[in-house]
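Ticket #165: bound-state structure for zinc ion.
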Amino acid sequence: MTYIAADSKDNAASSSTRKAGCIFCDKPRQESDDENLIIYRGVNAFVLLNLYPYNNGHMMVAPYLHTAKLAELSPECLSEMMRLVQNCEAALYKAYAPQGYNIGMNLGEIAGAGIADHLHMHIVPRWSGDTNFMPVIGETKVLPDSLSGSYEKILTAWHELANAE
Ligand SMILES: [Zn+2]
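RESOLUTION: The complex was predicted; output attached.
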């Protein structure tokens, strides 16, 4: 999981400003969901695209609560997060039909978390051969789809699936 989804260093605020500049706290407080690449706001957690994706459609699910520990999340939050991961899988399948997914968390800097103070789940779609272009760790790469293109595509898929329920 570290190999695939270690957070980019660019994604992290410096350690001295981390608390004040936590993207997982700041973004949901703002009202520009398209700029912040927020796909969905749940009750306890929200869904967004990674600004420094490891693949087209690299999504994340984060709780609103600023915490580094799973132990501090309520059962309701944990269950909502897994349900949102389920929705991410479905939306990515509808938008991109990936051949597989890496889904997981890096807890703590030593484990590869770029933003260690606010835990988050990565959902990374995978295709045969994509590792040929995958950096080993911590670097972004040129992607065939632009971020705004990915955002529109996944948002559309997300809403179509929600309406179909
Ligand atoms: Zn936070």
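RESOLUTION NOTES: Residues 22, 24-25, 66, 118 surround zinc ion (CB under 6 Å).
TICKET STATUS: resolved
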